[in-house]
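Annex B. Sample input.
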Amino acid sequence: MASINLIEAFQDFKDAENIDRPTMMKVVEDVFKTLLRKKYGSDENFDVIVNAEKGDLEIFRRRMIVEDGELEDPLTEVEYSEAIKIEPDFEVGEELYQEVDLIDFGRRAILAAKQTLASRIGDLKKSALVKKYEDRIGELISAEVYQVWNKEVLLLDEDGNELILPKSEQIPQDYFKKGENIRAIIRRVDVKNNNPVIILSRTAPEFLAKLLELEVPEIFDGLITIKKIVREPGDRAKVAVESYDDRIDPVGACVGMKGSRIHGIVRELKNENIDVINYTNNIQLLIQRSLTPAKISSFDIDTENKHAEVYLKADQVSLAIGRRGVNIKLACELTGYDIDVFRENEGGEEDYDIDLYEFSDEIDEWVIDELKRVGCDTAKSVLELSSEELERRTDLEKETIADVVRILKEEFEKE
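Annex B, continued. Sample output.
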């Protein structure tokens, strides 16, 4: 029997672990039954036997032996005189099984069959890949960086499948090198030009949720529920958590002893500030907690229009608004309310100021602590002093003070 070398085609099947054996056999059978129909007009009296291990197949033709001169259908019947040429012991009425030599199909037909088979395998692998990752949307994955481009990063999973992390799904401070492993969640599966494209994300709220699930056993076990997460990737995030077990402090469990649990997540998110708050159905209390670290003096809430006016002392306004307005923006997203911030005493209105801790992504925390030690709690309180005065009062070097002043000035220039 002259066999088509199908080893490469079968190897493709083996490489695609998601394609099961019955599907493989069915595809090969369909391809060669199409070949039989083209040559004989029907495939009803043919058996296609696939040997996936050896990488070949056998085709047998079944015909009924009839008396000479009584042949009516050459496709399903064979005359006795022809049958005994194959095997002398045959008798009329028996069924003749005869192996079909693939050479009889012709070289062109065989090549066409191989191409069709390769195409079908490719389509099956793509479908299997799409299904595999559609079932895993929202799941945390670790993958290796293969190529870094301006607009996206190409990664490979453990099976060598290509994954894409677009620039829009990267944290602004992310920096990747070829060969390193990074974590992200599977955001969605797109199909472009009939090819599946698996999109990953590190900016989605679900990414933070999965990291919390890994670090906090109580979340993984269902003792603590994450009600909502809002993020400004790389800057700040707010996480509302709730526990139905009164013995568990959900905020304390998420933060961990001396911040042990949250610190690893903060590092993964490139020093993103994470505010973990207790969820409540009391909207006034929820708004108050969502504006942390600011302390609110009084409220005026319109529940029908989902609008809240919040009054604070002058030194708390900058904390409530946050740098670039991020804190209040996230508070609005978390609560679902439009929040307006007002100073408690409009008559003694002060200039807009920003707490130094809002600059912790650009200024080291020990530098901020040193400035606060000498009474400089806000950006303007630092800028009011000369560089010489700051150098005299603190233990900071001249270059460090210059960097701090530059960062603070740039912020007010933006405003």
